[in-house]
Write a structure and sequence with these properties.
Layout: H1 7-21, E1 37-39, E2 44-46, H2 50-53, H3 56-71, H4 84-114
Length: 118
Amino acid sequence: MPRHNDRRSKKNLLIGFNLIYDGWHERELKQCYANEKLILREHVIKRGEVFDYLTPEFFSAYNLWSKIKRYGWPHGSAWIDEPASLVELVELFDIELQLLKEKDRNAGERRAAGTGRS
């Protein structure tokens, strides 16, 4: 399981999660745009840094979280029976997903209000 206990590691995991959520893992990144800024929920990075965050360690953590969301906890019981680091990882990504969805919902409401729609 990936290490995510230190602050920098958590930051990198959150940036990676934001990049996946926004679909940057599927985009072609042209070198001519490498210095353009990407504004994520709480972080700003350069486009050329995308794959500095979408690392094998990140994908290992993301795939583990994804499987837990789909199939449940690895030991088949409750979170209390899982390692604390695994519970922390799930909480980290769950909270970030909730915040990203809330941001999208708020942006949609602002757009609708700006066009006169309710």
